Amino acid sequence: MGDFSTGVNSHEDEDLLKQRETIMRAVSDILVALGEDPAREGLRDTPKRVARMYQDVFSGLHEDPREHLQTVFQEDGHSEVVVVRDIIFHTMCEHHLLPFFGKVHVAYLPDGGRLTGLSKLARVVSAVSRRPQLQERLTAQIADAIEDRLKPKGIMVMVEAEHMCMAMRGIKAHGAKTVTLVTRGLYETDAEQRAEVLSLLKG
């Protein structure tokens, strides 16, 4: 079944080591089931590499994205929309554990001058991306975190992504983009403001 030494430092958490060993065994079993030999030279370190990769790309499972929005500052009198476009993300579709990736565009209308650092929005995107995901859920979770911490008058989150489960299997639709949109607050009820902000997100 191969060598399951994890190759980790002694200071790493014991639960992390056990998790890595479990993933390594599972990867080795998959290779055997496919008719491969996990002990051959080219695959000898593959279970270890995959285990480390999974622990990295799924590390957001143990992270609350709202924590990145704890730093909120007041800018009295600021009542204009804040827009951050083209936040790059990569995540894994929970249906086939294949990647999907693309861009997130975020807009929020501050209430009472409550703002956060622009980089904090990118950290929120990173946190919700590093877990098995659906694009619809990812879009909503970004909006949820902003709504919970900043309590803005309105939120709009747009996600554009390409899914490898469509490109690599099934219909093999290379280059197809999926777009999801979540609106909250004022942008749900005010059609004029919704259209204006949507045009900003689309660029």
Automatic annotation (TrEMBL):
Xref: PROSITE patterns: GTP_CYCLOHYDROL_1_1 (PS00859), GTP_CYCLOHYDROL_1_2 (PS00860)
Binding site for Zn(2+): C93, H96, C165
Family: Belongs to the GTP cyclohydrolase I family.
Gene name of the record: folE
Gene Ontology CC: cytoplasm
EC id: 3.5.4.16
Keyword annotations of the record: GTP-binding, Hydrolase, Metal-binding, Nucleotide-binding, One-carbon metabolism, Zinc
Protein name stated in the entry: GTP cyclohydrolase 1
